[in-house]
Here is the input.
Amino acid sequence: MQEHSFTYNNQYDLELGESLPEFTLNYFTAGKMKKDFSNVVWVCHALTGNAEVFDWWNGLFGNDCIFNEKDHFIICVNVLGSCYGSTGPTSVNPVTNKPYYNDFPNITIRDIVGSLEILRNHLGIDKINTLIGGSLGGQQALEWAVQQPKLMDNLIICATNARHSAWGIAFNEAQRMAIEADPTWGDNDENAGINGLKAARAVAMLSYRNYSTYEATQTDKDDNITDNYRASTYQQYQGDKLTKRFNAYSYWTLSKAMDSHNMGRNRKSLEEALQSIEAYTQVIGITSDVLFPVSEQRYITQHIPNVTYEEITSLYGHDGFLVETHKIAGAISSFFKQKSKKRILLSN
Here is the structure.
C-alpha cells in the first residue's frame, strides 16, 4: 500500500457548532483505479484501527483475497480524531502553534464522513463500487450511504448499528471514567492518561469478547492457582499493547464520536434514513457479539430496500469481524454472486 496525505486548507465547520481551522487526512491506497471507478473499494476503519487495511483485515484484503490490488483500487483513510497522521487531539493547532490536546473539538460520525467526502471530491472519485466497514467503520459507511445514496453501488457493513445503543454508550463512558481517574489526564502531554487508557482498554475487551471467549482462551489449567490468573495477565497485556500505539486523547475523542452515531438525528426518522439507502447492501452480524448484538443488524436489514443478511458464528464476539476474515470473505463472495444472479434474472 502507498501512503498519502491531504490537507484541507479551509475552515471545517463541525456538526456540534465548533470548527477546525484546517485538517489533514493521512490515507493509504493500493492498486490502480479504473477510469470508470468500477473497481474502487473504500474501507472505513474501526475505533483504534488505521488505514493499513492489509494488516488488520488480512484474509479479506490481500494478494490472494477477495479484495486485492490486482483487481481493485483500495483506499482507507485514517479518520479525523485518530493518532495515525490525520488531524487529531495531538496535532498542532495552526492558530496557536501548539497541540490541541483537551482543546480539540468534539466530533461526530457525520464530521468524519464529511471529511471523507471532501477527500473523495479532491481525488476526483465520482463513484465507489464497494464501501465497506465494521463497528465504527460500519457507522461511517451507513451514514455516508444516507448522505450520498447514489455514490456507492455496493455497501457492506459488519458488526455495527444505525444508532449507538445505551449499552454501547455506557461501555464507552466507563472507559472514559477510567481515563478521567488517571491523575495525569488533562496534562498537555501526548502520554497524558496513559494508565487510564490501559484500564479503559481492559474494560473494552469485556465488550469485544464475551464469557465464552474468556472461558475457552483464558481459563487456568492449574486448579491450585490463587493469583496471577491467566485472565488477569491477559487484561494487563491488552492494556499495555494499546498504549504502545494509541493515546488517551484520540481514544476519548473517537469513543465520543461513536456515541454520537444516530442516523435519525435531525431527519424524519431512523427508519426513513435507512430506507433512503440505494446501494445493494450486505449486513453481517456476529452471533456472539455482545457490544453490537445481531438484533441491531437485523433491524438495519429490515429497513434497507435492497439488502441481504448474513450471520457469522464466532467464539470471538465483536472481535469476530476482525478474526473471522475467511468466513466474512465467503459471505461477501456469496453476496456478489447473488447480485450477479439478480442481474441475469432482470435481463431475462
The chain has a mean pLDDT of 96. The chain has two domains: 2-164+263-347, 168-257. The longest helix spans residues 325-347.
